[in-house]
Write a structure and sequence with these properties.
With 220 residues, the chain is mainly alpha-helical. 84% of the residues lie in helices and 2% in strands. The protein has eight helices and two strands; from the N terminus they run H-H-H-H-H-H-H-H-E-E. It has helices spanning 3-38, 41-71, 76-106, 114-117, 121-140, 144-151, 154-174, 179-211; strands at 213-214, 217-218. Strands 1-2 form a two-stranded antiparallel sheet. Strand 1 and strand 2 form a beta hairpin. Helix 7 (154-174) packs antiparallel against helix 8 (179-211). The longest helix is centred in the N-terminal third of the chain and has 36 residues, at 3-38. The radius of gyration is 19 Å and the shape is elongated.
Length: 220
């Protein structure tokens, strides 16, 4: 096998690993939201344990990427592919961390779930989860237009975060005994907001992979 064919094969394996990591993170955020809705503590603990797999995948992909960079002088398209991978795994790993954080918080709720504390949280969770799924999908499909559309949804998540805060202020005003649950719910909402932000970052790197542009600046 020629050096170029070998390099292309390694790039394909790198791409496959990145897609697997994306699927693992998607599963984590979906399950963390389900655990939050249903107060399923066993599922929450499973997500927290699974986060180690995400961390291990990030290290393995990072190592493979760096080896590829050192093996031969890649052309611009190769550099974009490897750079995109290195950037995306950072955001995917953080989404995994925040899914685990949500799972951990879900175990604190006793009489009612966070979804019951704020009526806007379920919609916020649904949009953030969809953004993660679609951002990974835009990478798989190499679809910068789809990625650009997902980025626009972040404003909706930001507004829902404000709505959740308003809900919680009203709840505490009515019943100060709800203060602890309100604080935990606000933390969940903050993690969801960050997850949406990381999905936006993934989309921006998908656009970079196709165009060499990052936030409208030509990089490569």
């Amino acid at each position: 096998m020629s050096a170029r064919l070998s390099f292309d094969h390694e790039l394909e394996l790198l791409n496959t690993d990145l897609i697997k990591m994306g699927a693992l993170v998607e599963d984590a955020i979906t399950k963390s939201i389900e655990a939050l809705k249903t107060s399923n503590h066993d599922m929450a603990r499973e997500i927290i344990e699974q986060d180690r797999q995400v961390d291990d995948m990030e290290k393995a992909i990072e190592s493979r990427s760096l080896r590829l960079l050192m093996r031969q002088q890649p052309v611009a398209r190769d550099l974009r592919a490897i750079s995109t991978t290195l950037k995306m795994i950072t955001d995917l790993e953080r989404i995994g961390d925040q899914a685990a954080d949500i799972a951990d918080l879900s175990m604190r709720f006793q009489e009612e779930s966070a979804m019951q504390v704020s009526g806007h949280l379920e919609k916020m969770a649904s949009i953030a989860s969809a953004m993660v799924h679609e951002s990974v999908d835009s990478y798989i499909q190499n679809d910068p237009e789809k990625a650009a559309g997902i980025i626009k949804r972040d404003d909706e998540v930001d507004q829902l975060f404000v709505d959740v805060k308003d809900d919680l202020v009203a709840k505490i005003g009515e019943n100060k005994d709800l203060a602890d649950d309100a604080i935990d719910t606000l933390m969940v909402a903050k993690y969801l907001e960050r997850i949406a932000d990381h999905a936006v970052n993934v989309c921006e790197w998908v656009i970079f992979y196709s165009t060499g542009l990052h936030k409208k600046t030509q990089i490569l």
